[in-house]
Specification:
The chain is built from 11 helices and 9 strands. With 326 residues, the chain is an alpha/beta fold. The protein folds into 2 domains: 151 residues, 3-Layer(aba) Sandwich (Rossmann fold), CATH 3.40.50; 162 residues, Rossmann fold (3-Layer(aba) Sandwich). The strands form 2 sheets. The chain has a 5-stranded parallel sheet with strand order 7-6-5-8-9, with helices on one face. Strands 2-1-3-4 form a 4-stranded parallel sheet, with helices on both faces. Helix 1 crosses helix 5, helix 1 packs across helix 11 and helix 2 crosses helix 11.
Length: 326
């Protein structure tokens, strides 16, 4: 792996499988009475969050602590950032504190890249979501979840080591325009051999989507019967001002055309699974009966996120610590 994880495009096929296979090994910790390893003892991981987050921040915190790293949680609210401190000065402060890794979520697309290549921080930088750009660890945990559900044998709870998602058909539905999850998933799933179809209203596709390694469609019903995975995206109304912002006529109309309800779920193949990166707008892009069904992997995704983020931190930091101790 490279020294940072900024984009799903940073990962080669070999890199991606290494993260997924390492996460499989680390997931076994969940079954142990003591769920900690001493691997990153003495290392400091900073969660630098300029945007609100629940799942991602807590997941990275749990991952670092299970590897015995020291964790500093930094929120822009109530900090010097709220007083006008620049990203550079914040970064220099973290460097002075001895941060070995900085997990950053920022409202500006490209902020993690700026942090990684500016020379302000010598440690590893992990992109935990930047604007509408990317969210690579979400794509990794999604791929991990797909591999476990689709590639595990009967009665097994983990995927075979070294397997990818070749030939699997993944349909990603909804607000692609504002979704960093969609972009990272398209890139990573393509690397892992999956065939990806994006489904959305014309107004919710970004400019340049034709260059992405996927196909696009406006017809959800036409894609369901041939899908192994359907991933529903949250409609990000906070990025549409005023609410809806003319991107679609109404919430009811959006749900009718692009929401996943019980009728549509019945159109899926028997083995197909339903995913959502969260948080959900229940009743809009996904019905409660679908979100809570046996086909849904939404809770599993949260659990798997800890194992995957442990793998990312382990692979980025353990090599450096081994090299120093040699």
């Amino acid at each position: 792996m490279k020294s940072h994880l900024l984009s799903a495009a940073d990962l080669t096929h070999e890199d991606a499988l290494l993260v997924l296979d390492t996460a499989e090994e680390l997931a076994r910790l969940a079954d142990r009475p003591i769920k900690k390893l001493p691997t990153l003892r003495g290392r400091t991981v900073v969660n630098l969050f300029f945007e609100d987050s629940t799942r991602t921040r807590i997941s990275f915190e749990a991952a670092a602590k299970r590897l015995s790293a020291d964790v500093i949680n930094f929120s822009a609210k109530g900090s010097s950032v709220a007083k006008g401190e620049s990203l550079k000065d914040t970064a220099l402060t973290l460097e002075a504190m001895g941060a070995d890794a900085v997990v950053v979520r920022h409202h500006a697309s490209g902020a993690p890249h700026r942090l990684a290549h500016s020379g302000w921080i010598r440690g590893a930088v992990v992109n935990a979501g930047d604007g509408t750009h990317e969210h690579p660890t979400q794509a990794l945990l999604d791929a991990f979840t797909m591999r476990r559900r689709l590639n595990a044998g009967p009665g097994e709870h983990q995927a075979t080591v070294g397997t990818d998602l070749a030939g699997r058909r993944v349909t990603i539905v909804g607000d692609v325009l504002h979704s960093r999850v969609a972009r990272s998933n398209v890139l990573l799933l393509h690397t892992l051999g999956a065939e990806v179809t994006l489904v959305a209203p014309p107004t919710l596709f970004p400019v340049g989507v034709d260059a992405w390694p996927c196909v696009t469609s406006y017809d959800l019903d036409g894609e369901l019967a041939k899908s192994d995975v359907v991933m529903m995206l949250r409609v990000q109304r906070e990025r549409m001002a005023p609410a809806g912002g003319g991107f679609f006529p109404s919430a009811r109309e959006y749900s009718r055309r692009y929401g996943l309800d019980g009728r549509r779920m019945a159109m899926l193949p028997d083995h197909a699974i339903v995913m959502h990166p969260g948080p959900m707008n229940r009743g809009m892009e996904i019905a409660a009966e679908v979100a809570d069904s046996a086909r849904s992997t939404i809770v599993e995704q949260v659990t798997n996120g800890v194992s995957v983020r442990m793998a990312v931190l382990y692979l980025l930091l353990s090599g450096a610590s081994e090299g120093e101790s040699a």
